[in-house]
Amino acid sequence: MIRSKITGTGMYVPERVVTNHDLAQRMETSDEWIQQRSGIVERRHVDGTETPVDLAEHAARHALEAAGVGPDEIDGIVLATLSPQHEFPGTSFFLHHRLGVPEIPCFDLRAQCSGFLFSLATADAFIRSGQMRRVLVVGCEVHSTGLEFSTRGRDTAVLFGDGAGAVVLEANDGADDRSGLLAIRLHAQGEHAKRLWIEAPGSAFWPERITKQMMDEGRHFARMEGRFVFKHAVTRMPEVLREALDAAGTKLDDIDLFLFHQANLRINEFVASSLGIAPEKCPSNIERYGNCSAASIPMLLDEVVRGGRLRPGQLVAMTAFGSGFTWATAVVRW
Ligand code: COA
Fold this sequence. Notes:
The structure is a single chain. The chain has 334 residues and is of the alpha/beta class. Helix content is 33%, strand content 23%. The chain contains eleven helices and 13 strands. The strands form four sheets. Strands 1-7-6-4-5 form a five-stranded mixed sheet, sandwiched between helices. A four-stranded mixed sheet has the order 8-13-12-11. The protein is globular, with a radius of gyration of 19 Å. The protein starts with a strand and ends with a strand. Bound molecules: coenzyme A. Coenzyme A is lined by residues 29, 33-34, 37-38, 113, 154-155, 158, 224, 226-227, 229-230, 263-264, 267, 291, 321-322.
């Protein structure tokens, strides 16, 4: 049976550090409020010299290097983002050009904060069907240009950051190698699409996708019903985690590391304590990077791999929740 396996990880964040104190200069907020509600201390923002494809390229090259493969050896690229380089074509096409890959397929996948896991599932399906042997999976976000840095936008502006993460997923048909993706489960509930969204520009509007008036009203900035999102996240994440563990034939206690989407430290603490998971099994980097949506999980994965916290043979469960609503878990034997 063909199983897919992550053979390389990479991440990249822009250099510019934006602290809670910096944000407090631009809106009515405080370091204390932000840390208490979300665990975030600082995040990275692009400074005008880098665009999404720059972030994606760095992360992708690090992952390829770690996997020991060249860009010409991959069969496809799946890139998850909610903050694309341009309206169309997707960021993946710009990355395709940057990497100088042959005429392999690439596409963007839009499943917001669960985008990386949805992309991983897609790449895994290509591999298990035999259509591809090696796929580059990237999560990449530049949120900072889509947030409202004023008191009106403070509930979302303080939470999000810019960054990219990537993995190389390869076919593992070695009879003795038990490592790889054991199970992945995805869900969505479109009923709540407007609870966390950027409304405009959009083809839903006529005769133009965005107007000056819509911009004055701030309809091109992220809007969120924070409490509603929180409530659903802490319910759905444990649900899908248990579902994926069952599918993988593993138990909660067997898992060495839980990589939760870095949306809010309080959400993850709530999920871990409700399941009785020890805090030391739940690494986080949200304090340094904020919520990088589709990039959060691959960034955290890269950190634990390079930091030696995830070792061959160990089991890792990655769980996300986000706009859509979407939620997902992947269980991987490293
Ligand atoms: N600084 C200071 N005060 C702020 C603020 C900020 N950055 N943002 C909001 N507030 C204020 C609100 O205006 C409100 O004031 P009011 O009581 O005078 O109306 C008060 O703080 C409480 O707001 P509320 O939204 O009820 O706070 P909360 O305890 O629910 O925390 C979130 C807000 C956003 C941190 C929390 O709801 C959350 O984390 N939700 C999930 C968000 C998330 O993870 N989204 C991404 C999912 S992928």
